[in-house]
């Protein structure tokens, strides 16, 4: 009696979405046997082994193969299911300030039994890594900004790819007031008003021997004028570092000294602009009408919060120093710099 033919395939075939794979059969049918496959999404084939290309969701399910020869037939089925990751995204610290690190990692819903065999990161500025997460310092030139791609390879052959463009911000800012110091005391009193349309320049402080100095480093990096009504100014989109602010006093105005009628005082020269004290004179005359601060350090999330920000108590407030003020006093004898007016005494 002729042996009954048989055919078998694996009960379950785990694979990945987008994969190309073959369902192999084992049969004792000899030469001349015919095969008929049927499967999801209208799949058919007459080959001994079924070949599936670019598996999609609709292609998952039960595949049935029938082998026939000389009046005999046998049937086998297999379940094709996906081990694909349902969600593949990159998370972590993806919106940072210059000076902070980009810390990116995968945020993936996966089968608990499946963990990546390998990680491969690529990104801007020729960045590559095989670590599971990144820790990339950010710099003022923003060369770290661009698309980061993570490729994860799994033991079952699945490859999952996720991409992200993180945000790197220049978070810091500095300002605030140039005012008419009518009593020349170096303090902004309630009745004293701002001076509008005063030229203001921002410089990087020169670094020597690894330490900041009170000298400017090159040309101004930003320029502006004070608000015509309020006398306020603001420099934004700054990064951590050391800065110097400079104003050009209007004709007949001089830097406040702190003692009316004297060419010198506690605010001339100014002791420090880096003290986070609000509403006092931070400028010192360097030549003619040019008045400058000493160096000021800006750092992410460390700036004063009692300086009148409209975003008080927020991260934006912590990144804004609005304590850099300039008191300018209108000279009583403008033709003579630093003059001391004659004060008549009673006899």
UniProtKB/TrEMBL annotation:
A Pfam family of this chain: SdrD_B
Domain SD-repeat containing protein B: 173-263
Cellular compartments annotated: Secreted
Keyword tags: Secreted, Signal
Entry-linked InterPro entries: Ig-like_fold, SDr/BOS_complex, Sdr_B
Gene3D superfamilies, per the entry: Immunoglobulins
Top-rank taxon, per record: Bacteria
Entry GO terms, CC: extracellular region
Name of this chain's protein: SdrD B-like protein
Organism: Arcicella aurantiaca
């Amino acid at each position: 009696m002729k042996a009954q033919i048989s055919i078998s395939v694996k009960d379950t075939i785990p694979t990945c979405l987008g994969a190309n794979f073959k369902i192999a059969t084992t049969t004792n049918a000899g030469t001349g046997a015919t095969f008929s496959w049927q499967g999801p999404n209208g799949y058919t084939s007459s080959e001994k082994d079924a070949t599936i290309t670019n598996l999609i969701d609709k292609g998952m399910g039960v595949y049935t193969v029938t082998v026939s020869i000389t009046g005999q037939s046998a049937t086998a089925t297999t379940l094709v299911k996906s081990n694909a990751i349902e969600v593949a995204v990159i998370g972590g610290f993806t919106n940072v300030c210059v000076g902070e690190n980009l810390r990116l990692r995968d945020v993936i819903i996966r089968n608990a039994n499946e963990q990546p065999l390998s990680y491969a990161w690529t990104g801007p500025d020729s960045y590559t890594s095989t670590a599971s997460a990144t820790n990339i310092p950010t710099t003022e030139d923003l060369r770290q900004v661009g698309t980061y791609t993570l490729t994860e390879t799994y033991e079952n052959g699945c490859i999952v790819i996720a991409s992200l463009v993180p945000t790197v911000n220049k978070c810091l800012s500095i300002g605030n007031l140039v005012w008419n110091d009518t009593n020349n005391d170096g303090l902004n009193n309630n009745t004293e008003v701002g001076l509008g349309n005063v030229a203001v320049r921002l410089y990087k402080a020169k670094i020597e021997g690894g330490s900041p100095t009170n000298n400017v480093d090159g040309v101004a990096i930003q320029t502006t004028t004070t608000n015509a009504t309020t006398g306020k100014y603001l420099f934004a989109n700054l990064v951590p570092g050391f800065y110097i602010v400079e104003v050009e006093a209007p004709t007949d105005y001089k830097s406040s000294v702190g003692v009316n009628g004297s060419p010198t005082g506690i605010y001339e020269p100014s002791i420090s602009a880096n003290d986070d004290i609000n509403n006092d004179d931070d400028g010192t005359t360097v030549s003619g009408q040019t008045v400058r601060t000493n160096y000021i350090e800006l750092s992410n999330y460390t700036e004063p919060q009692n300086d009148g920000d409209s975003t008080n108590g927020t991260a934006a407030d912590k990144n804004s120093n609005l304590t850099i003020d300039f008191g300018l006093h209108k000279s009583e004898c403008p033709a003579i710099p630093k003059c001391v007016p004659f004060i008549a005494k009673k006899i």
